[in-house]
Amino acid sequence: MIRECKICLVCLWMIIPGIFSAQSKTDSLAQRHNEMMAIMMTQPKYPVKTIGIYVYDGFNTLDAFGPYHVLGELMGADVFFVAKQKGFVQNQRGVKIQVDKSIDVVNKLDILVIPGGASETFLQTKDTALLNWIKMIDQNSVFTTSVCTGGWILGATGLLKDKEVTCNWYRADEIMKMYGAKFIQKRYVKDGKYWTSAGVTAGMDMALGIVQELMGDKYTQGVMLDLEYDPEPPIEAGSVTNTDDLVIEMMRTMYDSGLLPMIESEKKLRLPKPTIWEAWPDLDAYHKIMSATFHPAESGDLSPLKKYASELANLATILRKANVPTEFQNPAMSETLNLLEKESISILKQVNSKKSDVLLKNSIYALHDRFHEVVERCLDKN
Q1: Rounded to two decimals, what is the model's pTM?
Q2: Is the pLDDT confidence value at 195 over 50?
Q3: Same domain, yes or no: 240 and 280
Q4: What is the pLDDT of residues 265-280, one digit of tens each?
Q5: Does the residue 37 lie in any domain?
Q6: Same domain, 66 and 152
Q7: N or C: which end of the chain has fewer CB within 10 A?
Q8: Count of structural domains within the chain
Q9: Are both 260 and 338 inside the same structural domain?
Q10: Of the candidates 297, 302, 332, 116, which has an alpha carbon nearest to the alpha carbon of residue 203?
Q11: Residues 282 and 265 in one domain
């Protein structure tokens, strides 16, 4: 009997580990399942429901479709293309895509992506309606982004002023300075809500960076594995930092042939305009004497006017005889300058004939008004 009990106990001890092992395995599988579900059901750091990718004739294919594919991995997000007008849009290779939404009907996006291209992209930087739409979207977006030369378009809105950015390598520092931004040589850059990427393929890296920002590392690993994103190019190249100088020069020369004239023209337009006084030194000289005589006269001191009346008249004659700068020429300017000279000479005569201070004060006030009429003529033309 005792022997039989011992046998039963031994059997029981042999069974119990198996029972616990099976339970442990079940618990482990359940825990593993819960961990996987936690990754899949990760809630984004910021709510992102709508992602719009702006496209236009001449856009670069991968600039748009790279982020489109990557950001499409965000669960619950609606990723779509938007154009100036709905209908067919043709990329730089001639492939047409159907776009069902126009900027007229899209007034809010959580993420905006602006892809690049070449000369067609530069033309987009001059489209006031488009730039205003981007600024409107930016007011409520979680992220506003650009890929490659799409940074030119985003830069043209003024939203990148004083921001650190990147873009396509071609004349990057020069162009982004034009928009008041600081170029950084990186695959992608985040400055606040603004994400910018280098050329073409870098848009995928940027999009993955956005996924990581929103969803964390493990979710991003899942996206990268789904895409099997593990680049292994045959040679080390693809950036100005690892490409032969001769190749860089060749590519820059090729791009220059189509883009440099437009860039140089834009740079000239963005140069600070000279002031009226810088552009018209003779008028500036008259302005200085006018200030030196009029402002004291306002407080009753007419001695500067009596001292400089002759110089005021001489400068008015110089103004009338000199060539008016081209930017200030208009039909009424000549007559206004004639009147300025006539009234300046009249004040000189009043001073020489010792007319009353009351008359002199009234005359310098009238001459001051005439002078500002000349300035207004300049502003009308300028």
Answers
A1: 0.74
A2: yes
A3: no
A4: 999 988 888 899 999 9
A5: no
A6: yes
A7: N
A8: 2
A9: no
A10: 116
A11: no
Asked if residues 55 and 83 have their Cβ atoms less than 8 Å apart, the reply is yes
Of 8-12, 235-239, 256-260, 345-349, the one with minimum mean pLDDT is 8-12
205 and 353, same domain (yes or no): no
74 with 212, same domain?
yes
Q: What CATH number did the domain enclosing 248 receive?
A: 3.40.50.880
Supply the residues annotated as catalytic: 148
Output the 3-class SS for the chain.
CHHHHHHHHHHHHHHHHHHHHHHHHHHHHHHHHHHHHHHHCCCCCCCCCEEEEECCCCCCHHHHHHHHHHHCCCCCCEEEEEECCCEEEECCCCCEEEECEECCCCCCCCEEEECCCCHHHHHHCCCHHHHHHHHHHHCCCCEEEEECCHHHHHHHCCCCCCCEECCCCCCHHHHHHHCCCEECCCCEEEECCEEEECCCCHHHHHHHHHHHHHHCHHHHHHHHHHHCCCCCCCCCCCCCCCCCHHHHHHHHHHHHHHHHHHHHHHHHHHCCCCCHHHHCHHHHHHHHHHHHHHHHHHCCCCHHHHHHHHHHHHHHHHHHHCCCCHHHCCCCHHHHHHHHHHHHHHHHHHHHCCCCHHHHHHHHHHHHHHHHHHHHHHHHHC
Per-residue pLDDT tens over the stretch 59-118 = 999 999 999 999 999 999 999 999 999 999 999 999 999 999 999 999 999 999 999 999
| 175 & 264 share domain | yes
